[in-house]
Design a protein that fits this description.
Number of strands: 0
Helix content: over 70%
Mean pLDDT: 80
Structural class: mainly alpha
Radius of gyration: 23 Å
CATH superfamily of the largest domain: Winged helix-like DNA-binding domain superfamily/Winged helix DNA-binding domain
Shape: elongated
Largest sheet: none
Length: about 200
């Protein structure tokens, strides 16, 4: 590990902006361990923590010429926090799907069947949501997956409640079309459990 006293942060950043691989390596060596430990603690996954830290440093290298960084520690920790929040936010819909699924599927079904069916349904819902237009997708996630009211979403996105209703109606129609095959599965699975 490089001696921290040798390197002035502003000089490291200037060298990095000029494309110095040595400056990048020194920054990496100085910060990666703390970033990794924080990510692993929050995400409880070695792979996710490793991926997040790698993503931060890849982004730092790719954007080195255009980034305006005054405090490297603050920048890296903010980038880490944002990426961790994105991962946690991405995990939330899966948990909601699982909670919904558990509430409507009888306990007598085989656990393996439940997991397979849940993951199939979860993947289908996620694919369907990803096919929505950007604004409709955002409104749908806030409403149906995070449970926010139309007024909250309108305030958050700085649009009218009528616009929120429009996007929800459009999203729900699209979701019904894309998930029509899974509605049958949700109806049939409880019947199979009763046989």
């Amino acid at each position: 590990m490089p001696d921290e006293s040798k390197y002035n942060e502003s000089l490291l950043l200037e060298d990095l902006r000029n494309g110095s691989a040595i400056a990048f390596e020194n920054i990496f060596n100085l910060y990666w361990e703390n970033l990794y430990r924080t990510a692993k603690c929050k995400l409880r996954s070695h792979e996710d923590a490793e991926g997040v830290v790698q993503n931060i440093f890849s982004s730092l290298w790719e954007k080195r010429e255009t980034l305006t960084i005054n405090n490297l520690t603050w920048y890296l920790n903010t980038a880490l926090r944002n990426r961790i929040l994105n991962i946690i936010r991405d995990r939330m819909p899966q948990q909601k799907y699982w909670d919904y699924y558990r509430a409507f599927v009888p306990l007598s079904l085989d656990v393996t069947d439940q997991h397979v069916a849940f993951h199939d349904l979860s993947s289908a819902v996620e694919r369907a949501v990803n096919h929505l237009p950007e604004k409709s997708r955002q409104v749908f996630r806030l409403s149906r997956l995070e449970g926010r009211s139309n007024a909250e979403i309108a305030n958050l996105l700085s649009v009218s409640e009528k616009a929120i209703e429009y996007h929800l109606t459009k999203s729900l129609k699209e979701m019904r079309v894309r998930l029509k095959d899974y509605i049958i599965v949700l109806v049939i699975l409880p019947l199979i459990g009763q046989l």
